[in-house]
UniProtKB/TrEMBL annotation:
<dbReference type="InterPro" id="IPR017521">
    <property type="entry name" value="Sugar_tfrase_PEP-CTERM_Stp1"/>
</dbReference>
<protein>
    <submittedName>
        <fullName>TIGR03087 family PEP-CTERM/XrtA system glycosyltransferase</fullName>
    </submittedName>
</protein>
<keyword id="KW-0808">Transferase</keyword>
<dbReference type="Pfam" id="PF13692">
    <property type="entry name" value="Glyco_trans_1_4"/>
</dbReference>
<dbReference type="GO" id="GO:0016757">
    <property type="term" value="F:glycosyltransferase activity"/>
</dbReference>
């Protein structure tokens, strides 16, 4: 029976942020069918510590520190004509580790999680190649370029152009190219003409994300909660816009920005009406306390885990259309794009608590029936030649 090499740009343990959550569940799914060898980077020293669950489900595991800074990656990229995103993840130790596993094990499939890791797949491999792009990164950088100025705009345009070429080349090699939503997959097909492209959507663990499972944090007055990695530019821009343009339009309530590594721009928002928590052990008590969960993202790619988590916690959610794209919410999200409409949607929910509660219940029901991880990842079985019990098809 062939084995699987899983290459990840970030070790998917513990599953405490969006990209790690998807990787975690895919890895578990694959490991139920075949022995899986995991090679991944860590950009947090804590992720280098032994993880019992990771060791238990993998046939072998190696996590390498990623220490290359953005300045060095940019210099290497400019010198070699590569995207900065690829130069940042170019590592001799990882290349050697991949070669070692391929030489020693009967690898049938190489599952690549995030396009930065495709550079480690040998050109002459006979293994099946599954490329999980998640999102179309070149489109993200093209959007960044629209808002950038001066040299940064030039860099963003360069990154978008080079990544678009890289993505097309990878897809041409891959036996399957995966995206987190059909909208993202359709954009990629239209942009590249690639074949063998399909959506494998994100899911949600509705047992863990259950409002009955945790006690809410204590807060006097309405609490508006945003969760996410807070050194990530779209999240930074989202909370700045909400705090400066939306929150002043609301007579009462505070914004809680819940997430690790808040950037200086985020920390500067802290004050009487804005709480910046930094990293928390568990986001669920904050979600449980929310009068409204907000997702004011102007730039969002794929399916937003933060929105699915809020829905699973039975909270009413107000989101921009960008943040809701790709989510089959069946009318259980309130959508607004400009500041006045966003504030009005929140105010309407605050004015009718019974309706807000019912909206949250309906959102949880949608997630329970539509977004269970097992159902979302079933499409991998056909791609990888598994039957329902894990034998070769």
């Amino acid at each position: 029976m062939g084995e699987i090499l899983f290459l990840a740009h970030r070790v998917p343990f513990p599953p405490d942020r969006g990209d790690k959550i998807r990787g975690y569940h895919i890895l578990h799914h694959l490991a139920r069918h075949r022995p899986v060898h995991l090679l991944a980077f860590a950009d947090d020293p804590r992720d280098l510590e032994p993880h019992e669950e990771a060791a238990a489900i993998t046939a072998s595991l190696r996590v390498l520190p990623r220490r290359k800074g953005q300045a060095r990656a940019a210099a290497e990229a400019l010198a070699t004509g590569r995207p900065v995103s690829l130069a940042a993840f170019d590592d001799a130790a990882m290349r050697a580790a991949v070669a070692q596993v391929l030489a020693a094990r009967p690898i049938e499939t190489i599952h690549v999680y995030s396009s930065q890791m495709a550079q480690y797949v040998p050109a002459d491999t006979s293994a099946r190649l599954v490329m999980d792009f998640c999102d179309m990164d070149s489109a993200k950088f093209a959007a960044y370029a629209e808002d950038a100025r001066g040299p940064m705009r030039w860099m963003m345009r360069r990154e978008a152009r080079l990544l678009a070429s890289t993505e097309a080349d990878i897809a041409a090699r891959a036996d399957a190219s995966l995206f987190v939503s059909e909208a993202e997959a359709a954009l990629f097909r239209a942009s590249t003409g690639a074949k063998r492209v399909q959506a494998v959507e994100n899911g949600i663990d509705t047992v863990r994300f259950d409002p009955a499972a945790v006690a809410p944090v204590e807060e006097n007055g309405p609490l508006f909660v945003f969760t996410g990695q807070m050194d990530y530019r779209p999240n930074i821009d989202a909370v700045r816009w909400f705090a400066t343009d939306v929150l002043p339009r609301l007579a009462a309530g505070r914004l809680a920005v819940v997430g690790r590594a808040p950037a200086a721009e985020v920390r500067a928002l802290a004050g009487p009406r804005v709480i910046v928590t930094g990293e928390v052990a568990d986001v669920r008590p904050w979600l449980a306390a929310a009068a409204v969960v907000v997702a004011p993202l102007k730039l969002a790619r794929g399916v937003q885990n933060k929105v699915l988590e809020a829905m699973a916690m039975a909270r009413p959610v107000v989101a921009t259309p960008a943040a809701a794209e790709g989510i089959e919410h069946r009318g259980t999200l309130r959508l607004a794009d400009d500041a006045a409409a966003f504030a009005q949607a929140i105010a309407g929910l605050l004015a009718d608590p019974a309706a807000a509660t019912q909206l949250g219940r309906e959102a949880r029901a949608v997630v329970q029936t539509r977004y269970g991880w097992e159902a979302r990842l079933a499409a991998l079985d056909a791609i990888l030649g598994f039957d329902r019990v894990g034998a070769a098809a």
